[in-house]
Amino acid sequence: MSRVTEEEIRSLGELSRLALSDSEVETLKRDLESILEHMDALAEVDTTGVQPMTHVLGTIGHLRSDEVCESLAVEEVFAASPERTEDCFDVPAILPPGSNK
């Protein structure tokens, strides 16, 4: 029995703003089913006593310490900006007006 429905795939496509063809929906459905089967196989592995990992190499990145230093003046920051409102950059909208999804 399928755990992923065509309606769920179409809903995900809509949320992602993707226009999916019928063949793409079927392909994605098969791919997601395969991923879920793989996750089921991983869930069966006995991990008792295995310490959780945050990175496969076990190394920690080299981070610099936070230091307070001089920053640019507000006018210098906005010098190359084509538009600004008070102390904020104005950027073009990427979603159509009235879109709230």
Overview of the molecule:
The chain is built from 3 helices and 2 strands, in the order αααββ. With 101 residues, it is mainly alpha-helical. It has a domain at 6-43: Orthogonal Bundle (Histone, subunit A), CATH 1.10.20. A two-stranded antiparallel sheet has the order 1-2.
Helices and strands in order, then pairings?
Elements: H1 6-15, H2 22-43, H3 74-77, E1 84-85, E2 88-89
Antiparallel strand pairs: 1-2
Offer a concise description of the structure:
The protein has helices spanning 6-15, 22-43, 74-77; strands spanning 84-85, 88-89.
CATH architecture of the domain at 6-43: Orthogonal Bundle
The geometry reads as flat
Q: Could you give the distance between the termini?
A: 32 Å
The strands making up the biggest β-sheet line up spatially as: 1-2
Q: Which CATH class of the domain at 6-43 is shown?
A: Mainly Alpha
CATH topology of the domain at 6-43: Histone, subunit A
What is the N-to-C order of secondary-structure elements (H for helix, E for strand)? HHHEE
Main pleated-sheet profile? 2 strands, antiparallel
| Overall mean confidence score, pLDDT | 89
How many E strands? 2
Q: Give the strand content.
A: under 5%
Quickly give the structural class: mainly alpha
